Amino acid sequence: MSVPNSGEKTELPPPKTQVGVIGWLRANLFNGWFNTLLTLIAGYILISTVPPLIDWLFLDAVWGMVDPEVCKQAEGACWTFIREKYRLILFGTYPFNEQWRPLVGVLLLLTVVGFSCNRRFWHPWLGAVWLATLLIYLMLLGGGVLGLTPVRTELWGGLPLTLLLAVVGIVVAFPLSILLALGRRSNMPIVKSICIGYIELVRGVPLITLLFMASFMLPLFMPTGVSIDALLRAQVAIIIFVSSYLAEVIRGGLQALPKGQYEGAESLGLTYWQTQRKIILPQALKISIPPIVNTYLGMFKDTSLVAIVSLTDLLLATRQAFADPEWRSFFVEGYVFIAIIYWCFCFFMSKYSQHLERVLDTGHKR
Amino acid sequence: MSQTEGVSAESKSREAARRMPAPDANAIIEMIDVHKWFGQFHVLRDINLSVNQKERIVICGPSGSGKSTLIRCINRLEEHQRGQIIVDGVELTNDIKKIETIRREVGMVFQHFNLFPHLTVLENLTLGPIWVKKTPKAEAEETAMNYLERVKIPEQADKYPGQLSGGQQQRVAIARSLCMNPKVMLFDEPTSALDPEMIKEVLDVMIELAETGMTMLVVTHEMGFARTVADRVIFMDGGEIIEQNEPEEFFHNPQSERTKMFLSQILKH
């Protein structure tokens, strides 16, 4: 016979072995022989690699402005190389005395990027701000106005070039890829086949090929006397390449939405574009955030391929820095330095995307 | 003998009524000889249906009988391939403008609610009026709050659909349609996805709506609702309208064998 359960149960603390440091260790590192073994192996690898790395990076490293010969005697890294060459690495072949211009440009660009990350500023006027920022950026670097010495784009280089290619690539490829994704799902056969053709053609070739074609083959088809700037050609190649990948990522998001969302919108009498803009895209883009950022991270690092069409991006500028015979042996330091720069930007994008996913979550998973 | 003649005459006239709806000035929806195929499958066969203003119709039938497809043709969520559908004087064709006009006049409530999960309840309700009818935001919000009061969940206005129970979500969906001030409301199995204890709250809202004189077409298995609310019950099977009648007659004196079998199956318990 069941008896109704009356009277309160006393609240007991959990057993000691399950809480605190010991509890955590037991639960996570030493539960079972296999996990214990893995923990020990991982511990051994960490102990044998981390201290030497710290020694090389910091403790045995040379930080002062010394002769390269002194550096070669040292056990650790020679950060003198970076101190000596950082302007070449960061700004490439840009005229030395004018390098404040790209610096101001980069700071401005990063400020605007920072602002754009905040949802409070997501208004139509943000587009105008972006357009103005890019114009100012190009004017600062290119000169020829307001008494700034003209600097040809072939001389632009380093971080400002990499950031320009990446940021413009991201900003322009995004709407383009949305249109491509919508076009590929369209009922209109011509629009649909154009989009499919574009995506499949561009996705099927390496970025290097596109860059080569844009740089060397395109001029062959141009009428004599007409030439398009090399930087612009590389930029367009990047945009074309990224948008085809991004279009498929976004199409994946579109397909993940239940048909009921379209029907709900249609039954209210919303037009196709209203439905896309208000109902479909906000949801599709939100669920596509991880793969979109994935594509962007790849693109950010792929901008280094523009080196093959003689644009001095961050990577090529670094290689030019240790082309100096005196400093030739310090390429590891150079690579580590720009690896940290690349990593900072990528890590920021990754963290920001996770933040976006959190703030856009309205708990509708079903 | 005279009795059998009477019955056959009656069934003949019923048959005639089924095939040839009398043109009615009062009709808000006219379906004339409508056919539809899904690929090779003939899903709607020779549908003739005329719905008067303020009429409340319940459509029932076994699953796969085409009842959902029928009402989805009325706002062009499904395209019919033969025949005519005229809604409030506008004939449905491929003309997107006409389709949008009709969708503005015809509200629809779905089995799975189809609320927009990324918008709050209030935004779900004001989206149509603001974007389709160009109503000023403040006015749209006021209307929306009125309808939320009517479906008895004004306190949920700022929540997201995912935070509500199924019954609450379906009431929001009804309110969302009503905000467009439609002339006709279509309900596609509105309670089929709900837990039993939530069915009543949704049916109550629908009954209240019926009392206001809304023209309603309801696909449902809720026979209690059909008895209390419907002016006419339509039974479909195999893509055809088999029988239609007033609820009293329909339940107590079904004419066709298929109707009898269907009723015996669903009214057994």
UniProtKB/TrEMBL annotation, chain A:
Residues 159-348 form the ABC transmembrane type-1 domain. Its main location: membrane. CDD domains: TM_PBP2 (cd06261). It is found in: Cell inner membrane; Cell membrane. GO terms for biological process: amino acid transport. One of its GO terms (cellular component) is ATP-binding cassette (ABC) transporter complex. GO terms for molecular function: transmembrane transporter activity. It is a multi-pass membrane protein. The chain crosses the membrane at residues 33-54, 100-117, 129-149, 161-182, 194-218, 329-348. SUPFAM superfamilies: MetI-like. Belongs to the binding-protein-dependent transport system permease family. HisMQ subfamily. This is Amino acid ABC transporter permease.
